[in-house]
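Notebook entry, structure prediction.
Reason for the run: the old model in the group folder had no record of what sequence produced it. Starting over properly, with the input documented here first.
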Amino acid sequence: MKNRVITMLIWIIIISLFPFYSYGIEDLSPKLNNSSKFKIAYCENEPYFNYTGTLYGIIKGLYELGWIKTLNGLPYVPGDEDSEKIWKWLCTNDVSDYIEFVDEGFIRLIDIEHEDRNYIINEKLKNNKVDLLISMGTKAGKYTRDNVNNTPIMVFSSSNALRSKIIASIEDSGKDNIWAHMDPDRYNRQLKVFYDLFKFKRLGIVYENTNIGKTLSAIDTVKEFAHENNIQLVEGFVAEAKSDDDILRYEKELKEAYDKISKETDAFYLTVGSRNVKDTHMYLDPFYKNKIPVFSQVGPTEVKEGALLSVYRYNYDGIGRFGADRIIQVLKGAKPRYLSQVYGDTPSISLNLEVADKIDYKIPFQVLLISDIIYKKIAD
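New structure, fully documented this time:
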C-alpha cells in the first residue's frame, strides 16, 4: 500500500511536468499597446489566501518573462489573504514599462451592493479602458463571465470552472472573451492518496448544500470516488455566513456539524469554507478526540493550522508562469477562448506531526521521505 502511494505520486509528477500547453503566439517578449501600456484590472469575491498566492505567482511569472522589471518590496508572504495590498503596491510603484495595473481596477464583490455591481464594474472597466480583467475564484469568475462582455477575462483559482458554468467545456470556454484555468483531476488525485493511506470505509464531508457550495467542495468528484471505492459518504450541511452579523451562527453550526460527523466516520475531507483558516485546529478538535484523520482540500495552509495532511501545489510558481503566458498571449491579440485552459501543478504532500500524534497515527517512513512540507507543530 505504501509503495502504491509513492508510485502514484511519482506518476502524477511525471504527467504534470508536461502540461497541456497550446501556444497561439510563440513570441512572449514585452511590447507596448501601440504606444501605451496595457491596462489590467482585478476582481475577487472576498479575501482568500489562494487568490493572493495565485496573484503573486502571476506577477512573478510576468517578471520572469520580462514584462515586470522588479519584485523588490512586493508585499507578500505565504498565507497572506490581502491581495489588495499587492495591487496597491503594483499601482503605486514603477514596476513595468509595458503594463499599468489600474488603481481603480481592484474590485472586491462583497464590498459592493448586489444591485450596484454590474454598473460599477463595467463603468470602471470602460472609463479606465481596461485591456484585460483577472478574475479570481469561482464566485468572481461566474459573476464576471455573466456580466462583463467587452473585456477579456482570465479566471484563476476556481474550484471547477466547468461545473460552475464559467466555461462550456475543458477545451472551449464558450465565449470569445473568457478563459479559465482548469485542473480537472486535482481533487481525484487528493482522494486517491488519502484513500491509499487510510483505506477508510466512511468518509465525512461538510459543505453548503447549494450549487456554489457543491462546486466549491467538489462534491460530485467526492461522490464519484466514494461510489467507485464502495465508501459510505457521511454528509453534513451548513449554510455559509451571509453577512458579518451571521458569522457567529455559521461558526456555531459548523462546530456542531464537525462534532456530530466526527462520531460517525473514520476519515474526514476538509473542504473550502468561510471559517478563519487560523482557527482550523479549534474546529477540528472533535476529530482529534475521536482519532479521525483530516485531509485538507485547500492545501498546506490548513495543514499548518491543524489538518493532518494534504496533496496540493507546493507553491504558486507553476500556475503563475502558466497564467502569465496566457495573459501575455491575450495582450498580444489572442482570443481567450482559443487558448488551452488545462494545467496541472506538480503535486506535493504536506504533513503535520503534532496532529499525527494527537490521533495516534504513525506516518509511514516512505511518506515522510516524499513529503515536501512537514510541520512539527500546529501553528500558534
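Summary: Residues 10-23 have pLDDT under 50 and may be disordered.
The old model has been moved to the deprecated folder.
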